[in-house]
């Protein structure tokens, strides 16, 4: 199974990035993530980004730019559970509203020097690296 995911690196004026905690029942549960979700059929990644970020954080993205795209294969013990994710990552600096964990998920603004204190899915290594060098 291959799934495309739209992901936001939301960065504020203090250069902090917004992270959210995945629930224990989700794939890669209990890890921190950059908010986002699956791209649906008949939707571009950028459209999915705007939709998911409104659903998850209640904010309206005003503009976003492509940051990177990462393909990663998660291999599970049960091969039926293995999946390849394509993470289309966007740099987001401009939005309307105040982010909230709309789905009850903990959210945090973290600085580049704090980011290594959080555990992310392995596919996120390159994203974290890019953010550190912005
Ligand atoms: N949102 C997000 N997903 C990530 C990141 N890193 C990473 O490997 N993933 C993986 C985990 C999941 O397999 C997939 C994203 O799915 P998701 O669970 O966020 O999708 P969704 O918001 O549509 O939610 P759901 O209702 O299906 O749970 O991508 C990340 O930083 N953010
Ligand atoms: Mg999601």
UniProtKB/TrEMBL annotation:
GO BP of this protein: DNA repair; DNA replication
Residues bound to 8-oxo-dGTP are 22, 27, 33-36, 124
Print the keywords alphabetically.
DNA damage, DNA repair, DNA replication, Hydrolase, Magnesium, Metal-binding, Mutator protein
Task: Cite the EC number.
Answer: 3.6.1.55
User: Has keyword Cell cycle?
Assistant: no
Catalysed reactions, semicolon-separated: 8-oxo-GTP + H2O = 8-oxo-GMP + diphosphate + H(+); 8-oxo-dGTP + H2O = 8-oxo-dGMP + diphosphate + H(+)
Q: Name one GO molecular function term.
A: 8-oxo-GDP phosphatase activity
Which residues bind Mg(2+) per the record? 36, 56
The molecule here is called 8-oxo-dGTP diphosphatase
The yes or no answer to whether the keyword Protease is present is no
Cofactor dependence is on:
Mg(2+)
**Family from the record:** Belongs to the Nudix hydrolase family.
CDD domains linked to this entry: NUDIX_MutT_NudA_like
Q: InterPro entries under this entry?
A: Mutator_MutT, MutT-like, Nudix_hydrolase, NUDIX_hydrolase-like_dom_sf, NUDIX_hydrolase_CS, NUDIX_hydrolase_dom
Nudix hydrolase domain span: 1-134
């Amino acid at each position: 199974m291959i799934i495309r995911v739209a992901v936001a690196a939301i960065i504020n004026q203090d250069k902090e990035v917004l992270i959210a905690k995945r629930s224990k029942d989700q794939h890669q549960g209990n890890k921190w993530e950059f908010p986002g979700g699956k791209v649906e059929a008949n939707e571009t990644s950028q459209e999915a980004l705007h939709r998911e970020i409104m659903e998850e954080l209640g904010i309206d993205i005003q503009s976003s730019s492509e940051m990177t795209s990462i393909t990663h294969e998660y291999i599970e013990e049960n091969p039926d559970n293995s999946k390849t994710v394509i993470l289309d990552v966007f740099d987001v600096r401009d939005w309307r509203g105040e982010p909230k964990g709309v789905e009850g998920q903990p959210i945090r603004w973290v600085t580049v020097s704090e980011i290594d204190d959080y555990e992310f899915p392995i596919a996120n290594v390159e994203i974290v690296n890019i953010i550190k060098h912005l």
